[in-house]
Every structure is written in C-alpha cells, then in structure tokens.
C-alpha cells in the first residue's frame, strides 16, 4: 500500500514537473517588440506605381523610419532624409485623369505632374496651407489657410482670397441715437448752413471713393463664441460650405496628477471631461459667391429629429403620460460635404448627438434644402464598420455614378453592408448581404469595381475581395487564412499587403491583384529568439451561452492536460474589439503570456463576448444599458463550458483582463462569487459615470438621464460581493481610465472591511504600458496570483 502511494506521488510530481517546463520567461515576453521583432507598418504605393513605401524599425531605434522597395527589386531599402524631403505626401487630390496631384506637405502646397515626375511648389509661407482641391474645371487649386479659402490659378499664378470669415460680431451700420439726440442732430443740420454743407460733402466723398474699393468676399462673422471647423469649396468654386461649432460653456475637464516628473514637483496632466458633460452645438452654412449671400442649413425637418429615445419611458412618473417627442429638435452634427461633379449637390452625413440617428442627406447647394436619402435609427446607438462609433464620424460613402447615384454602408440588415441609392428617385439597391460584415470598401479608379475587406469567409478572418460596383459576386483575391491590409497599385495590377496569422506577426508582402496569387515576402522582422519557440495556433471554437447565442472564443490547451485541470479566462479590452480571430493580435503580449501559461499546464480561453466586434449589430449592442450583463454571463458560461468539455476543475478557474476586460473581471468577482477562484483587473473602469462621454454615452446614455443603467453597470456598487482573491493593477498617469477609478474602489473595499484584495500601482505608466519593467512586474504578479490560487 505504501509503495503504491509513493508511486502515485512520484508520478503526480513527474507530471507537474513536465507541465512546468517552459522555455519562455515573463521578463522575456514582456520586452514586446524587442523580443518579437519590430514589425512594419501598413505599406502604400508611390505615384510611379512601381515603388512601395512603409514604416519599419529593424534596427531597434526609438522610432520607425521610412523604407521602400520596388517591383523590380523587392529588397527593402531605407529612404534617406534628403529623399523623404523631396517625396510627395501620400495624401492629396488627383485631377480627373489621375495625371496630376496637389498635396500639402510641411504646411506648404505642391503640384505633382505624375507623368513627368516633376514637382512645382505653390506656396512657401510661415502660415500653414492645407486641404488643396481642384476647382474651376481644374484651372485652379483651392486651399485653406487659417480661417479662409484661397485659389491659385495654374496658368497665371494669381492667388485670390475667396472667403472672409471674421471672429466677433458684425458692427452696427449706424449708431442708434435716442429720440432726443436724433431731434438735436436734425435741428442742428437745419439751423446751421455750414454744418449742413459739410455733412453733405462728407457723404458725397464717401460715395465717390466707394467706387474705387476693390471687390472683396462677403464678410461672414463668427458671432457668440462660434468657431470655424469645416470649410469646403464646390468643384466650380461657386459654393463654400462651412461648419461652425459653439463650445459648451460648462465643460469641466479632469486632471491626473503626475508624481514622477523632471521638475521634482507634482504636475497635473489635463484630461477629458466625464460622461454627461454638455456637448457643443453645430451649424452648417453655405456661402454663394455668385450672389454674395449666405444661408444656414435647417435640419429640423429631418424625420425623427424630435423623437425621444424609448429608455426615457422608464423615468416617466406613473401618473404622467410619456411624451414621445421633444419640444425642440435634437442637436446634430454635419459631416464635411461630398460634392457632385456638376456642383449642384453635396452629400452630407448628419448624426444626432445622442448617436441614435444617422441621416444621409442630399444638399441642394442653390436652395440649401435637404433631402433624406437614408435614415438609420437605432434605439441603442448607430455604429459599425464603415459607419463610425461617435457622432462626428463621417462614415464610408461616395459617388457611384456622378450626379446620380451614391453608395454607403449601413447596419440596416443587422450587419454592415453596402448599399446604393439614386439621388433623384430615392431607389435603393442592396449591393452585399449575408451574416458577415464589410470592414472596408473603396472603388476602383474607373468605378467599375469595389475593393473590399470582409470577414465573409469566417468571422475571425479578413480577406480582400473584388466585386462589380453594381453588386454581384464577391471574388476572394487572398487565400491563406488570416488578416489582410491591402494597398492597390495605381494601375491596379499589384497589391502591397500587410498580412498576419494567429502565430505569425505582421509582415509586408507583394502579390498580383488576381485570385489565388501567391504572397511574396518583403520584410523579415522576427528575432531569432522569437522564432526559436513553437508558438501555438489557438483553436477558434464556439460554445453556447445560456440564451442560446453562439459565442466565439480562442482556446489554448496543454499537450498533455491534467485531469481536473486549471484554467484562465482572458477578457479583451475596449468592448468593441475582436480577439477570437486568426491573425496576429494587438494583444500580442497576452498571446505570448497565454503560451507561457499553457506551458505551465493551464488551459486559456479568450472569449469574444457580447459587445465584441466582428459579429454584427445585435452582438455589438448586446450590452446597451447594462454593461456587466450578457458580456459577464458569457464569461461565466465560458467557465462552465471549460468544466464540461475540457475536464477543468470548477474550483481552479481564474479570470483577468485590462480596461474593459478589467471592468468585466471586477464584475465577475463582485457579482459571480465562487465562479472564479481569483481575478486580476488591469486599468479597470470601476464607475462608468467617471469615464468619457464619446464611448460611454452611446452605451449607457448619460448618468443624469439614465441613472439606472449606470447603477447596474458599475462595479463599485457591487463591491460587497467580493469573496475570492482580487488583484487590482493600474497606471497612475492613466488619462483614459483614470487612477481615481481604482482609488475610489479601494476606499469602498476598505469601508466594506474586505481583506482578500490587493492593489499594485505603476507611477510612470498610463493606460497602455510602455516600460518592459512595468509590463513584467504586472504579469509576474498576475502569474503569482494564479499559481497561489489555482
């Protein structure tokens, strides 16, 4: 019997020792790119159509440098500073036949002749010129300098100022006299002949000299603290569309103390206001140069602009009737205009500041009237790929047939897809459809095709497609599973690609623009140390949540998992982000840490919970008015799934995550005691009323309007539920999720007499850690927590 027990002990010890051997160390993997290799940035094409440029740092400097390669010689070469100074900027505006481009660089303007590869400098001033566009049948270039627009005549070289915006109120034409003073003036002029003559002479001279005054643009006054924000000119140069903003007067910023400074004094870092802060007001105006008049765009006739959101019903007293409409229209934001070539119309994307409405409108430049082409209303919030998260996102749209038809993206079907609409008839056409998303869309130069990035193949893959611009079959160009960021060559025959796979970091590749073409590797960035380890390809799986939803996740498993094993659930940040995919993760340190944990015998589950990106509108908005609801139960259901399907001991499961992942970790430890033996919460939101407006108001509305949503969504209100071990980690100079969040929670835990928690702070780190020493310290603490508890 004793021999048997000794044998079991020896076998068990041998098993655990075999699991504990890992060639990786936390210090090593937390060096980040110093260990992995410095990866290249997304490539772009030179104007010659033969050269590809990209940012890279193979020498391990503190900054990236510009590199290039050509179709004839695909060996990367560093671009000298002298050559960079002469290179055209990657942005700019092309003329109709793509033979010329105007662009801004270092605050000056340039004209590039692509065929001769010659550059003409247009301006050389200390002021900053920007936003150059072609106008007047491409005979002039219009551009912005300060608060005004100018034109430069290509043939004559003449520069003309075409707007005159002035800060302040318009001066009164004549000083208004009191009735008494008016009587005295008239009496003086009537009684004294010389005084009358001098008065008339002065008036006559003034009229005479007026004829010699140069004709100037109309003075447009920016009154009542308004600021000029957007400024655009139509292709014919006749219409100026301008957007003004009036800042909210009662916005109160926050401050973050910085304790370790060069001066030796504690210094405050200025940071964003909190959710619920008053928002600016916006107006859109048109200046008609031909008639020398201005008029403001009226949005109050848009459908639904008076409509109240339904959540307000919950706050209507029982003895009162809910009024479905506001007395005044909602505040809205106007995008920059997208002009038609004939200069009769412009497309304006209008969004309500509560982010529940988006109107894609046609603006008649002559009358200033709006026509709605598409109205998207969402009781949660309007967003999604090609649409944008915040109200000032312009979204993805453009002209499909000049002066007749436009294309745009919408989540009307539940997934972000492409649509077109005839501006005259209002007839819409669905261009793509299905349970997948269009992540990016651009038109070919001749507008015959769309080039698309989509997850049609699999939610965890993003491939490059070509599709006829009138709709039809999406032809997949790329082949290998993973993610592709693609730049199409000017002649559209080649693709410069940034490609990655689950265990293969991003590198630059070259390929032909045809289906099934092979990838030619251009960069090789990985270090020998990184390549020496056999990095896992985590399996992308699905499990069923309690409400029947299919939840995607990535799972890491030891080669020889122990019975009743241990597991860790990782919760990605941001909420609206995807991590259960088949490409190199932005959470690459965590990916390496999960390989390290797996070497130590842990199973790791990485869940794309409710609110994650990549799965359509309903998944995105699954947390509306209740963060810590379905997004939390998806983690709990994931833990149950591990127990049932992978023989994990339910008493040996931990959880960790940062930012939104830290928030979910706190909610798990406070609201689901006993499910997770321990949790590590990094840079966590503890009270959503203290986070920013742009992100939080979309999901929870504002604390003043929807206090119930904030109460049920903020961990600090559930801290009394803590039973298991909790580790809190936070950077003290975090201007995003501020250190104040965890300080307030710490005080709450102290008052509750909780003892099973600890907090580690990092005095010189913000929301995204920078120093390898901080990263390593943080993750050693997390690993120690799991080792002690699991």
Automatic annotation (TrEMBL):
Domain Peptidase S9 prolyl oligopeptidase catalytic: residue ranges: 595-789
Keyword Transcription: no
Family matches, as Pfam families: DPPIV_N (PF00930), PD40 (PF07676), Peptidase_S9 (PF00326)
Keyword check for Ligase: no
GO molecular function: dipeptidyl-peptidase activity; serine-type peptidase activity
Residue ranges annotated for the Dipeptidylpeptidase IV N-terminal domain, each copy included: 107-185, 230-505
Superkingdom, taxonomy of origin: Bacteria
GO BP, sorted A to Z: proteolysis
Keywords (A to Z) from UniProt: Signal
InterPro entries in the record: AB_hydrolase_fold, Peptidase_S9_cat, Peptidase_S9B_N, Serine_Prot_S9B/DPPIV, WD40
N-terminal signal peptide: 1-20
PANTHER family: DIPEPTIDYL PEPTIDASE 9 (PTHR11731:SF193), PROTEASE FAMILY S9B,C DIPEPTIDYL-PEPTIDASE IV-RELATED (PTHR11731)
Protein name from the UniProt record: Prolyl oligopeptidase family serine peptidase
